[in-house]
């Protein structure tokens, strides 16, 4: 079994996505991912001693967990000369507040607070770990939460989920041992050349995507916010059956279309239509290509518009979303545009667009609850220079589905609007299960 050593690995260059996130971190604007699991009592949750031991095991398997990004000059990565992080540097003990709100509200606030704390840590210190584990207890309540927060420089969403599962698994003896210098980049293993038919024809130049006006206040002054709601296993089963009957074999296009219809209902105002520019990150992590198990960024993003108008058929839009994320040309285009985006094109009067998209929709798919856990969720902390006004994060497991929305409150989006979007989302789910499919009848 390989052992950890203070001898640093041979430096190698970051690929485009980590370099992009590294440049954001250097500007004090890191992209932070937060995941968490919940336990009904401390007897069900892993002990601190277990977590401390596992943190050592994880770094022996995956030395990128104690790597330094920006090593030396430029965007190089190599393991720290000091060797792996001690468990005391990774684990944070905390007492959560539960004075009001539901357990879901407590969980949401906890994830957001931990993400914000991680953001402050990596922004203020160059020598701090890029990942943290939180153990959250309450003096009067039995419920325990375990959180994992990390800088996107270290891993993407699927990598973070793999790391969380490895952190909480009974054993990781069957997981691989990696070397930083041997891990290939996204660009080395996936064809990122743009397709010959790179430009989609017939896209309407107007109306502008929502929101087409500047935020009400500076996003740097707006409050990072999050809200999470759930769908039951029963509703998911009925929704999936309805989707299959209408030619949509997977739930992702359906969920994204439902969210789009809910946005149309809340933000169209007096207009009969609403044009949304959306992105859907797609995991390209593939261990057979030598990709890292739980670190690195192996993600591309499908980007396309969704136009909703009065009287539109829901399943027509859902099938169009399905086509967009499965078409080979669209996949090639998604791979070609991974990494940082060019500056936004100016709008009339030379005013730069405040956003380049309306929302992102990230789906980690179906996971499984770690032993003893009864809930899990995840989010990405909203930054002041995000591509869109809101982001949606989804994860499914044995007890249902968690849908999280993040935004900066008071900018282009407010809490009351997000709560209305959630209410409409659940209404659309019920109406689809009942057999309705036109926009107007779905939201009424």
Automatic annotation (TrEMBL):
Region (Disordered): 1-22
Domain of life per record: Eukaryota
Protein name, entry field: Alcohol acetyltransferase
Record InterPro entries: Alcohol_O-acetyltransferase
Taxonomic lineage of the native organism: Eukaryota, Fungi, Dikarya, Basidiomycota, Agaricomycotina
């Amino acid at each position: 079994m390989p052992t950890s050593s203070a001898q640093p690995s041979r430096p190698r260059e970051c690929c485009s996505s980590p370099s992009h996130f590294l440049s954001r971190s250097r500007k004090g604007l890191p992209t932070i991912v937060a995941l968490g699991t919940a336990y009904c009592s401390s007897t069900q949750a892993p002990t601190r001693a277990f977590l401390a031991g596992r943190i050592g095991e994880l770094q022996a398997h995956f030395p990128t967990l104690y790597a330094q990004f920006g090593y030396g000059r430029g965007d190089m990565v190599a393991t720290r000369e000091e060797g792996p992080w001690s468990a005391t540097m990774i684990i944070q003990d905390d007492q959560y507040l539960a004075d009001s709100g539901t357990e879901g509200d407590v969980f949401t606030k906890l994830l957001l607070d931990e993400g914000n704390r991680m953001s402050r840590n990596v922004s203020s210190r160059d020598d701090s770990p890029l990942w943290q584990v939180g153990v959250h207890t309450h003096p009067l309540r039995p419920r325990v939460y375990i959180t994992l927060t990390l800088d996107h420089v270290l891993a993407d969403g699927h990598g973070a989920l793999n790391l969380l599962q490895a952190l909480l698994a009974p054993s990781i003896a069957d997981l691989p041992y990696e070397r930083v210098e041997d891990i290939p980049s996204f660009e080395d293993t996936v064809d990122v050349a743009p397709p010959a038919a790179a430009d989609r024809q017939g896209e309407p130049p107007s109306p502008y995507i929502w929101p087409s006006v500047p935020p009400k206040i500076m996003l740097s002054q707006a409050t990072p916010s999050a809200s999470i709601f759930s769908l039951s296993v029963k509703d998911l089963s009925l929704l999936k059956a309805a989707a299959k009957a209408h030619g949509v074999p997977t739930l992702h296009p359906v969920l994204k279309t439902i969210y789009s219809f809910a946005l149309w209902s809340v933000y169209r105002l007096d207009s009969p239509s609403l044009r949304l520019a959306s992105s859907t990150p797609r995991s390209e992590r593939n261990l057979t290509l030598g990709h890292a198990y739980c670190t690195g960024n192996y993600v591309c993003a499908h980007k396309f518009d969704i136009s909703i108008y009065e009287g539109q058929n829901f399943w027509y839009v859902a099938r169009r979303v399905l086509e967009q994320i499965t078409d080979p040309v669209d996949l090639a285009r998604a791979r070609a545009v991974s990494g940082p985006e060019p500056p936004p094109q100016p709008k009339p009067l030379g005013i730069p667009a405040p956003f380049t998209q309306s929302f992102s929709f990230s789906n980690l798919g179906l996971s499984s609850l770690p032993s003893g856990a009864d809930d899990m969720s995840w989010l990405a902390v909203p930054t002041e220079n995000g591509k869109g006004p809101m982001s949606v994060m989804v994860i499914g497991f044995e007890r249902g589905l968690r849908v999280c929305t993040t935004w900066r409150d008071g900018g282009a989006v407010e809490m009351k609007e997000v709560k209305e979007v959630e209410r409409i989302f659940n209404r659309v789910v019920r109406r689809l299960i009942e057999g309705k499919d036109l926009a107007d009848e779905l939201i009424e």
